[in-house]
Write a structure and sequence with these properties.
The complex is a heterodimer of chains A (about 625) and B (about 150).
Chain A lengths: L4 H7 L3 E5 L5 E4 L1 H6 L4 H4 L4 H4 L11 H15 L3 E7 L2 E2 L5 E2 L2 E11 L2 E11 L1 H44 L3 E6 L5 E4 L1 H7 L3 H4 L12 H13 L4 E9 L5 E13 L2 E10 L1 H23 L3 E6 L5 E4 L1 H7 L3 H4 L4 H4 L2 H17 L3 E10 L2 E14 L2 E11 L1 H27 L1 H18 L5 H32 L4 E4 L1 H15 L5 E4 L5 E4 H18 L7 E9 L2 E8 L31 H11 L4 E6 L3 E9 L2
Parallel strand pairs in A: 19-21
Antiparallel strand pairs in A: 1-2, 1-7, 3-6, 4-5, 6-7, 8-9, 8-12, 10-11, 11-12, 13-14, 13-17, 15-16, 16-17, 18-20, 21-22, 22-24, 23-24
Helix pairs in contact in A: 15-17, 16-17, 17-20, 18-19, 19-20
Chain B lengths: L7 E4 L3 H13 L6 E4 L2 H8 L16 E5 L7 H9 L9 E5 L6 H8 L3 E4 L4 H18 L6
Parallel strand pairs in B: 1-2, 1-3, 3-4, 4-5
Helix pairs in contact in B: 1-5, 2-3, 3-4
Classes of the chains: A alpha+beta (about 625), B alpha/beta (about 150).
Chain lengths: ~625, ~150
């Protein structure tokens, strides 16, 4: 039998290509054609890479270059070359490519030592490769899942730790009990601290067993909880802790499932301290309220932003004749005439803007009880630099105000009276004096000595009464005069006084001037004081053989004390209190001339300066008059 | 008929004061030139030649008016205001007579243009002296313009 090698080659079940050295396809096995989806007549005689180009859809395709390299190796080494498993996609008849993996062996065929053919043997390992890839992918996914699971478990563990931490770190006491048995399942650190229990000692016991509560209170709590289906928020209860101390607790609870059993989760906050503070605050408020409601002054509080009344006390209600229900929430315009409300509001604004206390000495207010006058103090209540409230305290000065008005009226009447006295009393005096004079001039010759003496006494007394009126007027004028205070050099002033006294009288008194402090005073009035005291000293010592008047001053604390001392007639200290009264005299006019107004005027002037006047004397030996002037 | 050259017009309601004043003037030889009127209304009539004095010669102006401050009906201040408020009489010197220098009206008088004032003293001698001095001063020394 003759073997047809052509036929034999074409029919082998393996996949072969015979390539000429220039890589033209010479022969091909039928199995190859089947595997590469080609037809013999279409590929025979064509260049290998024209028939099998790289898959343009696969950017990583390296089939052409690797195969070319293998073939080049065969030509160069003249030995067979096996390629590893190579991805080499093949074109389908429709132009698309099919993914394929191949095992390739290229072997040279020589004739007389010359390369005439390369046998290109391939094995389609696509299915195997794909299976392998799938297996690898599965393996990878498995690893990933395992890792994810690990992370998940770790997270759960972390979360558990986290919640445990929170559970234990929470300042809120938390415990969980089994609903049915009442036994404790879990407690946190705050619970342990609050009740002074160790969790290992109490888990599994009921709250009654550990004396947290008793039957009655637990029943009460349970009843309240049941009313709300176990869900309670901020229920206030009382509990006993370790040493039997009863505590006020704020309880929040909910029913949860633990191991398929209903359980109470109970969170509690200790509000005992808060309760104590609230109680103290309440007591303090009660204390202040008692004061506020019982003081006789009106006290009100306004909101600093809208000036509406927030509070008023009983005295305020009475004074305004308005109950607090009708007043709170209102402003001044709701309650008072517009001009008054304007005034009150303007003062309120001043206080709020300046953030300072304001005194309003007098303000009229129309109340249900008629017009009243108030002395009001307005005080801002500041928090964090912002005025929150305005507090007002008002004293009802209506009665005092009326008294003042009455006094003013009285003063006016007195002034008018004084004025008329000065006019109307003087006219008849002038007539008495004048007609006595006329009588003397026209009929003096007809009168004997006694007649003339009587006439003279009439004139003298009329003139004396004129003096009295003048002094009385001077006294009342000083009462009305307001002080013009300036620095007063008392040395200068005393010297002026003495110079003036020398002009008006003939006297021989030895005047000794000691130290004299300067003061702040009304110069004119101080001159009057000195003229009067020194004049008195001269007058009352005039009958002595060696009359002496000493003038001096010294500082005593916050005052300068001035003294004017004479060695004259003196006085009995029993009558010292009469020295400074109006028309009070300790000597008769036949003894020493005078109207009894001078020292009264001195006292008035000194007391207007804020000082005091007093005197010391010994009958027949002399007198010392003192007055004090405050330094400031 | 009295002397038509009136030198001094005395307006004084108190007869005693008037008598004392006139006596003081007489002592100083001024009395025969004095006209004494007893109230402010009369004084206005006299000065402005109205009412009872409508027939008086308008050109006969007194050289000085001594005017008591306090008078019933029309008081010294009103008379003063009229005299000093009228162009024709403004130049006549007016001396106010008052009982006290405490009188708040004294300032008003100066504001209205009074030329001087006398506090009528209780002592007659003083009074005589003061009246004489002032009368002499205004009548003899201080001749009004155009007088």
């Amino acid at each position: 039998m003759k073997i047809d090698f052509q036929n034999l080659f074409e029919s082998v079940p393996d996949l072969y290509l015979l390539l000429s050295p220039d890589l033209t396809i010479a022969e091909v096995s039928t199995a190859y054609l089947t595997a590469t989806l080609t037809k013999r007549e279409e590929i025979t005689g064509r260049k290998l890479f024209d028939v099998f180009p790289d898959n343009p859809g696969d950017p990583t395709a390296n089939g052409v270059s690797n195969l070319q390299a293998s073939l080049d190796t065969v030509k160069l080494t003249r030995a067979a070359h096996a390629m590893g498993i190579q991805k080499y996609d093949i074109p389908r008849p429709d132009g698309t490519f099919e993914e394929r993996f191949w095992k390739v062996l290229n072997s040279p065929v020589f004739n007389d030592g010359e390369l005439i053919l390369i046998v290109h043997k391939v094995e389609d390992v696509t299915e195997f490769e794909l299976l392998k890839k799938q297996a690898e992918a599965q393996q990878k996914r498995g690893n990933e899942l395992e890792a994810a699971e690990k992370i998940h478990l770790k997270n759960i563990k972390n979360q558990e730790n986290l919640f445990l931490k929170i559970f234990d770190l929470s300042p809120v006491s938390i415990h969980i009990t089994d609903v049915e048995s009442g036994k404790l399942l879990h407690v946190n650190k705050a619970f342990e601290n609050l009740f002074q229990f160790k969790s290992k000692d109490i888990i599994g016991k009921t709250t009654i067993e550990i004396k947290m509560t008793d039957e009655a209170r637990r029943a009460d709590t349970m009843r309240k909880m049941n009313e709300h289906g176990g869900k309670m928020a901020n229920l206030e209860i009382e509990l006993d802790v370790a040493n039997g101390t009863r505590k006020n607790m704020l309880m929040t609870s909910e029913v949860i499932e633990i191991n398929s059993r209903p359980s109470f989760m109970v969170a509690m906050v200790d509000i005992t301290q808060r309760r104590i503070m609230e109680d103290e605050l309440r007591k303090a408020n009660q204390f202040l309220d008692t004061i506020l409601e019982n003081i006789p002054n009106m006290v009100f509080v306004k909101d600093a932003t809208d000036l509406r009344f927030l509070r008023i006390n009983e005295a305020g209600e009475k004074m305004l004749g308005v109950g607090r229900d009708a007043l709170l929430g209102k402003n001044d315009y709701d309650l008072f005439p517009t001009d008054q409300a304007d005034f009150f509001t303007q003062k309120d604004q001043e206080v709020i803007i300046s953030k300072k206390l304001l005194e309003i000495d007098e303000e009229p207010i129309n109340t249900k009880n008629g017009e009243r006058w108030l002395h009001t103090r307005k005080i801002p209540v500041i928090e964090n630099g912002k005025p929150l409230y305005l507090v007002g305290i008002s004293d009802d000065i209506t009665a005092r105000k009326k008294q003042q008005d009455d006094i003013l009226q009285l003063n006016k009447e007195l002034e008018a009276f004084t004025y008329s006295v000065s006019h109307d009393l003087r006219a008849p005096l002038r007539a008495v004096s004048g007609y006595a004079q006329m009588l003397d001039e026209d009929y003096g010759k007809a009168l004997d000595a006694e007649g003339k003496r009587l006439l003279h006494t009439i004139s003298q007394n009329a003139e004396r009464m004129g003096q009295l009126i003048d002094n009385l007027l001077a006294f009342s004028r000083i009462g009305k005069k307001s002080l013009v205070v300036s620095d007063t050099d008392m040395k200068l002033l005393v010297n002026e006084t003495i110079a003036e006294l020398r002009k008006t009288g003939d006297w021989r008194t030895d005047i000794k001037i000691g130290e004299l402090h300067s003061i702040k005073s009304d110069h004119g009035l101080m001159y009057h004081v000195m003229a009067n005291l020194v004049g008195n000293g001269i007058k009352y010592s005039s009958k002595k053989e060696n009359p002496v008047v000493e003038i001096g001053s010294e500082q005593m604390g916050n005052e300068i004390i001035f003294s004017v001392k004479d060695n004259g007639a003196g006085f009995d200290m029993r009558y010292a209190n009469k020295l400074f009264g109006v028309f009070q005299r300790l000597h008769g006019p036949e003894e020493f001339d005078g109207t009894g107004v001078g020292l009264a005027i001195v006292q008035r002037i000194i007391s207007k300066h804020g000082g005091r006047v007093w005197a010391e004397g010994i009958p027949g030996e002399g007198a010392t008059f003192y007055f004090s002037i405050p330094i400031n | 008929m009295e002397n038509t050259t009136v030198e001094i017009l005395l307006v004084e309601d108190n007869p005693n004061d008037a008598e004392l004043t006139l006596r003081a003037m007489k002592k100083n030889n001024l009395a025969n030139k004095v006209v004494h009127l007893k109230d402010g209304a009369d004084a206005l009539d006299y000065i402005f030649c109205t009412g009872a004095y409508a027939a008086r010669d308008k050109n006969q102006k007194p050289k000085v008016i001594l005017l008591d401050l306090k008078m019933p009906k029309v008081d010294g201040i009103e008379v003063l205001r009229a005299v000093k408020g009228d162009e024709r009489t403004r130049s006549i010197p007016v001396v106010m007579l008052t009982s006290s220098n405490e009188d708040p009206d004294v300032k008003t008088c100066y504001d209205l243009g009074a030329n001087s004032y006398i506090v009528k003293p209780v002592g007659f001698e003083n009074f005589t002296k003061v009246v004489a001095e002032l009368g002499m001063y205004w009548v003899l020394i201080n001749q009004p313009p155009g007088g």
